[in-house]
Amino acid sequence: MIPPILAKMRPPEQSPLALADAHSLETVRLSAGYGERPAIRDVNLTFRPGQITAIIGPSGCGKSTLIRCVNRLHEVTPSARVAGQVLLDGADVYAPGVDPVLVRRRIGMVFQRPNPFPTLSIFDNVAAGLRLNGIDPGKSLPDLVWEALDRVVLWDEVKDKLRQPGTALSGGQQQRLCIARALAVAPEVLLLDEPTAALDPMATLKIEELLRELKRDYTVVIVTHNMQQAARVSDVTAFMLAGLDNAGVVVEVGPTHQIFTNPTDRRTEEYITGRFG
Amino acid sequence: MTETTVGRPGRPSPREIRAALGRASTGRRGDAVWAILVGGCAVGILLLVLAITTLMVVESWPAVQRFGFGFIVGQRWDPVGGHFGALPFLYGTVVSSVLALLIGGPVALGSAIALSELVPRQLRGLLSALVELLAAIPSVVYGLWGIFVLAPLLRSAVEPALRTALGFLPLFSGPAYGVGTLAGGLILAIMILPTIAAVSRDALLAVPNDQREAMLALGATHWEMVWGAVVPYARTGILGGFILGLGRALGETMAVTMVIGNRPAISASLFAPSYTLASVIANEFTEATSDLHLAALVEIGLVLLGVAVVVNALARLLIWQIERAGGSAAAGPGRGR
Amino acid sequence: MRTPLSIAWHRKVANWLLLGLCLAALGAAVAVLLAVLGYVTVQGAGGLNLDFLTNTPRPVGDSGGGMANAIVGTLILVGIAVVVGLPVGIGAGIYLAEYGRGRLATVVRFVADVLTGVPSITIGLFAYALLVVPLKSFSAFAGGFALGVIMLPVVTRTTEESVRLVPASLREAALALGVPRWKVIARIALPTALSGIVTGALLAVARVAGETAPLLFTAFGNQFWSWSLRQPIAALPLQIFVYAISPYDDWHRQAWAGSLVLVGLVLLLSIGMRLVVRRQRYGG
Fold this sequence. Notes:
The structure holds three protein chains of three kinds. Chain A contains eleven helices and ten strands. Chain A has helices spanning about 5, 65-70, 100-105, 120-130, 140-150, 155-160, 170-185, 200-215, 225-235, 255-260, 265-275; strands at about 25-35, 35-45, 50-55, 80-90, 90, 105-110, 190-195, 220-225, 235-240, 250-255. In chain A, the strands form two sheets. Chain A has a six-stranded mixed beta sheet with strand order 6-7-8-3-9-10, with helices on both faces. In chain A, strands 2-1-4-5 form a four-stranded antiparallel beta sheet, with helices on one face. In chain A, α4 runs parallel beside α7 and α7 (about 170-185) packs parallel to α8 (about 200-215). Chain A is globular, with a radius of gyration of 19 Å. Helices cover about 70% and strands about 0% of the residues of chain B. By secondary structure, chain B is mainly α. The N and C termini of chain B lie far apart (about 60 Å). Chain C contains ten helices and no strands. In chain C, α1 (about 10-45) crosses α10 (about 250-280), α3 packs across α9 and α5 (about 120-135) packs across α6 (about 140-165). Chain C is flat, with a radius of gyration of 24 Å. By secondary structure, chain C is mainly α. Chain C is about 75% helix and about 0% strand.
């Protein structure tokens, strides 16, 4: 049955604010694949501001494909297909005439392996999103970089080495640098694809702390294969599973507390207890 | 939370940043310009090849018209009298290149086997680099070495020995000057050795280990394993290497010109001087006596181009096959053992 | 029936013999390399002096003089070759790496590979027909152009390989920031691939610096200093060739000295680049 540890979990945190800048994200019958192979089918999920939504499931269930469809990164792969809608504040990002470049500027992404730009310094990495898009904040640039690094609690560790290459940091620091880089362009939504998969436990905890901070200002979606992480960090959890045709579908979605203590679908319960048992 | 909507004095607020990002160019035009620019360069390569072929045909046209197919089989090359037949040069090119393959090929293959199967892994990189260094030496330096080191050696020691031992064969008959077909073949053999060795070594290294182990499990000696399992598996790549080497030999100019004697005569003996397609162009072009002479030389260039392209294309097709099967062009931490 | 547990002696002998032959082949290859380099060094050192490095050739029969103008000429020709061949080669290489899936890319790739095998003397004929005939003069520009054409396919392929090596994760990081595709290539992928591209370019330079055949009727050679692109110009390999086939001992000595300089230049580039590549692959 459900291990006692989960029964002691707190109910989801209350979102303490009414954000003036609230941005919601919703997928409507989203399906995607590569050439002949489907990856996800008919995904209907809502991601709300002020909370962290976790997407869990075994490998191959399409979690990564799902969030890559959200910021229109999926279509960069040559054989990629997408169908359905992704509504950012009610507007479909896949509507004809919408430039994927603009979509990606509104939605930030952090990847599984930290990927700072090796030819840029730490400072330039954070500033990259602005500079590469032709925006020159002039004298306020150092302030913006400071703020981003401060938010990810990296400033004190790197303030004396801002000119060093972005790769001169430890894995956990690099990942926080990547988060700072994403935050510097003031995204409305933050997508994280298994952000701590390549990190050690200490670094993982630091990033989870950071995410709990960030959810106050962003709509945060995190894909993770680590269920304890989902339980620790998220407010809402969606469980995905690959169907008979290998396309991933959402089996169940709900408040994290409920998913982990009282799932309604038998498959969800099997997955969760299987991992803990 | 107020911080998300109101910026600090002087610092843009997130709203302002988002607005600026929304306004900033999405690069539609940049994408198009860039694609055209690099695509144009790629197309430029195709145009270049087209231009080369066209210009050569145009410049050689007077000779093509005059001599037609007889150019290829004509034996007489007489600029003064206006007779131009390319057969002696075709003969010289083919003989010297085939000789180079016969001498250099086995040595190259042996070196490749040594590099991939015998040499300890730590030394493999260094020794491979040394062999490949042979390819870095300029052709004219090989020619110089050929004139003053190789040819005298041939004249004084090697060729007399060959004549004594095998002089009854027409191959080793006639006076021996050192310079001649044998010298040309030897120099070419040295020059194509690194090419054949490098490609063959890569092909051999790409052979999966279980092939070797299966052969050894049957009780084979080391050599029997190499010759019976590894080399046959890699034979496509090795063949590609040989053909690539042949292609290089066909087009080689300077070193050959300096040691082959430069006489347009067809002779059975390896000691006799000879003349290759590339050499006659090198020697006569700047002193061509007539427009027809020039056109004939360009036509020789066209023949050379055609032969070299066909041979190289064949080699590339074979090599592409081994590249797709998993070999790579690195002398890195080796496969094999 | 007892099965033999040891291998028949003739198989053992064959094993040692044939494997030994392979090692001997490798030894022969290295020996030849050392022989050639050795002769060039020993013979060349004799003629290498300040006179040689600073003077132009003397008239036929006079001793002394040097190849200063030829050394400078080679540098000038290589410079022109780089201007002609590098931009187009890098551009084509980027195209093949970034847009390289279509039919056009396959054709271009194949043609570039075949082009590397075209005899350099035919490229010289092409440059002659294109630049020497219409302008009615041998010229440094024609020579440099021919060398540039030789460099072109080599640079294309090495650039393609270098750009391909840039990890997809870097491109994705840039794309996820909303950076337009062309900037992802120009500002992220290219700088990351830069060292590989430079290595490939320098290797191509090392190759064309030693080319003689295409210069025979383009650059043509020059006994004097020449700084004009539209005039014939001296080149080190050309000078070596002319001196080597001449009947004068003094010129032979200078040919060896020139070879030492040329081989030194080429080897410096080739070995230098290999060291850089190894350090990058195994440590950097």
